[in-house]
Design goal:
The complex is a heterodimer. Chain A has twelve helices and no strands. Chain A is an all-alpha fold. In chain A, helix 4 packs across helix 11. The N terminus and C terminus of chain A are likely disordered. Chain B has one domain: MetI-like (MetI-like fold, Orthogonal Bundle). The model of chain B has no long low-confidence stretch (mean pLDDT 87). Classes of the chains: A mainly alpha, B mainly alpha. The interface between A and B is large, with 103 and 107 residues.
Chain lengths: 284, 281
């Protein structure tokens, strides 16, 4: 975690009362922000853990009855399990592609100076200025021609376009944080480049690479537009939910929403250490 | 391995990928927007603009982006500032603040649907407190204003985290000494924030504004989940033309419009908040 500007040890300390009041104000603000973030998620979980009748009832209870009726309905609903499986499959493929293509690029950017380096960096940064999910529109035709339409692989390729710039930037900052001297030391001790990378750099970079892999997974797991455009039979969970929004009963929506949200909480927890480092570097 | 060739070899997969799945589809979408049945034309744009829903669609998207982004910036600055003042438990609080970052727009829409729907939690709360007798239809088609507010709140909830994360990272890059020096000269907390932190935060503000503005024009699933088609936005219309109306060319025209707006704002923020390389910390 980066060190952040603190207002420690003011030269002329304000009166104790004012400091105390300021402290309570700070705490109250933090509690309010936490409630703002957490309460809506709690309410979704309440809905997901209530029976279908309770979800439709009015006025609603603000605590769950721990009835699994809605969840069972969701799991048994035609197509849900397949959509869940498709989501996992597409996200795993996306994760693999974006690391396999992104990590070498990040390594090259951090270790070498070469003509064309800036062109590549600008290209990666430029992708951020584009509404990427829209690129799914022309690709829909391209995929029909190549037989990739309505497949997990085709969608994963599009999702990789979304995740790749992040993978490049995160791994770039990651490798930049590992001193080149370590590699040089390995070279002088008789390692070739590959051995030096594998034995010295890889163990150090592993956790960060895992984090950027999780990040790529999350991007794909959450993506709705391209998924809805490119799949028909093999819907991912978000595409499935979107498609059935106006026809499905409320308890199905809320159970499905919870199924989308709970893994996302875990993903963010897994990458929490790297969220800040990556944006700090990506600013430059 | 040849040292001169190695970096290019390492970049090759990513470059190839971006060419096939970024540059090529971009050219294709441009081609589709400006042609119909193989003929070069602007008819697609005329169809797009001529549609009766278009003024409302563009207006809604603009209004939403114009409201949500400034509010998010203020809120994220607030969140980032309170976090930096914390001495203990900062990691845990940051995690909680960052949670919406992992939540998709569709899930966020569903979450706020649970609150705003007619038999939802907001109506339940208001009824229990005796403020209303019968539930209000917040998301009905005749209530454009409440739909807008619901979408606004859902977007604020969902996407403020990304701005906050970028700003916290940026604040971490500002050397402590600047603030301490200002304090020595008697600057109040507010003065230090306005005159020291904000100007030094410009690169992060730029990144955050560009990213958020682009994403604000891509708003889609939140709106669909909360209002169906009662609150048309650009991305939703793109989807509508592609699928319900089966007109790829007009959908491509919408895509070009979103693209032009996005690039326009990127250039604007790049210029407006530009920090010369030598002046960076």
């Amino acid at each position: 975690m980066t060190e952040v500007t603190a207002t420690a040890s003011a030269p002329a300390k304000p009166a104790p009362d004012a400091r105390k009041a300021g402290h309570w104000l700070l705490m109250a603000t933090i509690v309010l922000f936490c409630i703002w973030v957490l309460a809506p998620i709690y309410l979704l979980v309440v809905n997901a853990l209530s029976s279908p009748e309770e979800v439709r009832a009015f006025p609603k209870a603000f605590w769950p009855s721990f009835d699994t009726g809605s969840l069972r309905f969701f799991v048994e609903f035609n197509g849900v399990l397949k959509a869940l499986w498709n989501s996992v499959l597409v996200a795993s493929l996306t994760m693999t592609f974006s690391i396999l293509a992104g990590a070498p690029a990040g390594y090259a950017l951090s270790r070498f100076d070469f003509p064309g380096k800036d062109v590549f960096r600008v290209m990666v940064l430029m992708t951020r200025a584009f509404p990427l999910p829209l690129l799914a529109l022309p690709l829909a035709v391209f995929f029909i021609r190549t037989g990739l339409d309505d497949t997990a692989l085709g969608l994963a390729l599009v999702h990789t376009t979304l995740a790749l710039p992040f993978a490049v930037l995160i791994t770039f900052s990651l490798f930049s944080g590992i001193p080149y001297e370590l590699e040089e030391a390995a070279h002088t001790l008789g390692c070739n480049r590959l051995q030096a990378f594998w034995k010295v750099i890889w163990p150090l970079a592993m956790p960060g690479i895992a984090a950027s892999a999780v990040f790529a997974f999350t991007i794909s797991w959450n993506e709705v537009f391209a998924a809805a455009v490119l799949t028909i039979q093999n819907r991912t969970l978000p595409a499935f939910l979107l498609q059935s929004l106006d026809v499905s009963p409320p308890h199905l929506k809320f159970a499905g929403g919870a199924a989308l949200v709970i893994p996302a909480l875990l993903f963010i927890f897994a990458v929490r250490k790297y969220l800040f480092a990556m944006w700090g570097i990506a600013n430059r | 391995m040849n040292r001169r060739l190695l970096p290019y070899l390492l970049l090759a997969p990513a470059t190839l990928f971006l060419c096939v799945f970024f540059a090529y589809p971009f050219l294709m979408v441009a081609g589709e927007a400006f042609s119909r049945d193989g003929q070069l034309t602007v008819a697609n744009f005329q169809d797009m603009i001529g549609n009766w829903k278009f003024p409302a669609t563009l207006g809604n998207t603009m209004l939403l982006a114009g409201t949500v982004v400034p509010l998010q910036l203020i809120m994220a600055l607030g969140m980032a500032s309170v976090v930096t003042h914390l001495e203990r438990g900062r990691g845990a609080i940051l995690y909680i603040f960052a949670i919406p970052l992992g939540i998709s727009d569709l899930a966020a829409g569903i979450i706020w649907l649970a609150i705003f729907e007619q038999s939802g939690f907001l109506n339940s709360l208001l009824t229990m407190m005796g403020i209303i007798d019968k539930p209000i239809q917040f998301l009905g088609y005749q209530n454009k204003m409440t739909i807008f507010i619901a979408v606004l709140i859902a977007e604020l909830w969902r996407a403020t985290a990304i701005v906050m994360v970028i700003l916290v990272a940026g604040m971490g890059l500002i050397p402590k000494e600047y603030n301490e020096a200002a304090e020595v000269f008697g600057a109040s907390r507010w003065q230090r924030f306005i005159k020291v932190t904000l100007p030094l935060l410009r690169p992060s503000l730029q990144t955050a504004l560009i990213l958020r503005t682009i994403l604000a024009f891509e708003v889609f699933a939140v709106v669909v989940a909360l209002s169906g088609t009662n609150f048309p936005v650009l991305m939703g219309e793109t989807y509508h033309w592609q699928f319900e109306l089966q007109d790829r060319n007009v959908a491509a025209a919408f895509a070009m419009l979103i693209l032009v707006i996005s690039i326009g704002f990127t250039l604007f923020f790049t210029k407006a908040l530009n920090v010369p390389k030598e002046a960076r910390i």
